[in-house]
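Title: Comparing notes on inverse folding

I've been comparing how different people in this forum approach sequence design from structure. To keep things fair, I'm posting one structure and asking everyone to reply with a full sequence. Here's the target:
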């Protein structure tokens, strides 16, 4: 398995998103397969890429194959999610329930404590 540095992942992700914006899906899949795929997958991806350039398009099976084997590696270039730190709830200011609050407010209004 290929280990990528944080900077390399960041560069790959930026380039990946730029190519996706330009609809270069085949190129993205081929690049991901060349980095993370096995030797037979790399050969097939290169063959599909050459055929695409010759014919000007991809067949349905080629598109499915590239999606299946290429884009499954997309998660490997994403940054790891940060751990969410749960904050403790603040203690309530008043520990009286509703009925006790009403009784206290009404006694203050009447002048008693």
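Reply #1:
Here's my take.
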């Amino acid at each position: 398995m290929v280990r990528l540095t944080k900077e390399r992942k960041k560069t790959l992700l930026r380039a990946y998103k730029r190519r996706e914006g330009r609809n270069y899906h085949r190129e993205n899949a081929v690049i991901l397969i060349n980095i993370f795929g096995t030797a037979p997958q790399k050969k097939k991806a290169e063959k599909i890429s050459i055929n695409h350039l010759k014919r000007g398009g991809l067949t349905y099976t080629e598109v499915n194959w590239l999606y299946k084997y290429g884009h499954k590696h997309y998660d490997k270039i994403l940054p790891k999610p940060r751990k969410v730190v749960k904050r403790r709830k603040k203690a309530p200011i008043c520990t009286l329930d509703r009925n006790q609050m009403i009784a206290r407010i009404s006694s203050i209004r009447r002048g008693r404590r």
